[in-house]
Amino acid sequence: MLVDHFPLLGLRLTTPRLELRLPSPEELAALADVAAAGIHAPDTMPFLVPWTDRPPAEVARGVVQHHWQTLGQWTPDDWELDLTVFHAGEVIGQQTLSARHLAVLREVRTGSWLGARHQGRGLGTEMRAAVLHLAFTGLGADEAVSSAFADSHASRAVSRKLGYQDDGVERRVIRNSLTVDHRMRLTRKEWERHSRVPVTIEGLAPCLSMFGVPV
């Protein structure tokens, strides 16, 4: 079976309302459709790479290509896990966990997006809590970092709710304009203090060497 050669296909995170895992081809198509239907208002850009500034068909194709690219380029020292998020069996968005030299640095980074009609229901907090549990409990991370632009109020609110602290700013050029990127950092201690969402991890053991974690 393919999962025997690529065990990440068997990794699954569950929370009270959500399931996070790698998608089947049909589910990847559904994820592309969600992105093409819209993630944010046209007058805003929450991403460092403005990948949604394209026609819907190109946005959808980009989701598919990026998914394949990250899996194809995976190494234990440099990886990006793009998990599809399901709510009541429906694809609603994507939650990313990534790291470089995790075994040495013990640091992960998170990123995510939700389809516009699924926002405002606390699902963004729950899906990030799921991958933080994977990082701290399953992979032995010491810190997690994230960032959001000044006008990305929902993302910054999620970070604060989960215990992140301010970690400086960077000046960026987005759509040919100055944008201030606010970095945030979550330590293991603060994660333990703020962790409230129950998370179940399945299929992790066969994946540990792929994450660069000593078995």
Automatic annotation (TrEMBL):
<feature type="domain" description="N-acetyltransferase">
    <location>
        <begin position="18"/>
        <end position="189"/>
    </location>
</feature>
<dbReference type="InterPro" id="IPR051908">
    <property type="entry name" value="Ribosomal_N-acetyltransferase"/>
</dbReference>
<dbReference type="Pfam" id="PF13302">
    <property type="entry name" value="Acetyltransf_3"/>
</dbReference>
<dbReference type="InterPro" id="IPR000182">
    <property type="entry name" value="GNAT_dom"/>
</dbReference>
<dbReference type="InterPro" id="IPR016181">
    <property type="entry name" value="Acyl_CoA_acyltransferase"/>
</dbReference>
<protein>
    <submittedName>
        <fullName>GNAT family N-acetyltransferase</fullName>
    </submittedName>
</protein>
